[in-house]
Amino acid sequence: MARQSRDPARDPARGRAGAPVLPPLLLTRPAAQGDRFAAMVRARFGPDLPILVSPLIVPEFLAPPLPADPRGLIFTSETGVEGFARLWQGGSRPAWCVGDRTAAAADAAGFDARSAAGDAAALVAMLRAEAPPGLLLHARGRDSRGDVAGTLARQGLSVAEAIVYAQLEQPLSEAARTLLRGTAPVAVPLFSPRTAGLFAAALKADRLEAPVWIAALSPAVAEAAGVGRPSRLAVARRPDAAAMVEALARLAGDAQP
């Protein structure tokens, strides 16, 4: 269920002295990640920024069979860590992770995590360089971009996959649609091509015509969001939450584009 932390119909927030001005923010991430990002945004833009949380996807955890004894794990999302940890009873293993947040989740779950501090390409490069022996298991979602396991297998590593979760689509809440029917700008950070595509489709299907300011995690996300014809668009300079906050600041005119 969508949760509204402030009244989104209020005027755009003015934060602490000198903070940039940002219009009401619509978060479409799953609730846990959305709440964490909201705290980061308010730290930058001030505590009175109106934020509406309306997830477009929610995780459903699955129970696939797992290899008996993988020597190492590959994680490309925090949700993958959670999904695998729900199933695994085999103790700690080395875990190669796409970024710092995923590595922190893997550490918390009891794995010996290391971070590629980037994207899937950085993760593949790290694994190629280290070339760990034995079977590696990529615990991932049903819908994913790229082919980490296949790419590594073609380069001589032994890699299997386990699909440990699916992200189920859900519609924008009525509160979100009401916000997007207005004439005032709405800031929307988008973290994946899939959610960007779902958001653009929702705008079109419901004829939601508020000016949207899109902060995109990557060029691929920006491309998917472009279908919705954002009135402003900024692409994060790194694929992480801190860079997304900076992209919002650029949208608000607080930094160089």
Domain unit count: 2
* Largest sheet: number of strands, sense, barrel closure: 6 strands, mixed
Determine the strand fraction and express it as a percent band: 15-25%
> What is the annotated CATH architecture of the largest domain?
3-Layer(aba) Sandwich
Q: For the CA atoms, what is the radius of gyration?
A: 19 Å
The helix content is: 25-40%
Number of distinct beta strands: 14
Q: Give the ordered list of helices and strands.
A: EEEEHEEEHEHEHEHEHEHEHEH
Low-pLDDT runs: 1-17
**Discrete helix count:** 9
Query: Would you tell me which CATH topology of the largest domain applies?
Result: Rossmann fold
How would you classify the quaternary structure? single chain
Class inferred from helices and paired strands = alpha/beta
Integer average pLDDT: 89
General form = elongated
Strand order of the largest sheet: 6-11-10-7-8-9
CATH classification, class level of the largest domain: Alpha Beta
Describe this structure in words.
This protein has 257 residues and is of the alpha/beta class. It has two domains: 118 residues, 3-Layer(aba) Sandwich (Rossmann fold), CATH 3.40.50; 110 residues, Rossmann fold. Helix content is 34%, strand content 23%. The chain has a six-stranded mixed β-sheet, with helices on both faces. Strands 1-5-4 form a three-stranded mixed β-sheet, covered by helices on one side. The protein has a three-stranded parallel β-sheet with strand order 12-13-14, sandwiched between helices. Helix 5 links the parallel strand 10 and strand 11. It is elongated and about 55 Å long.
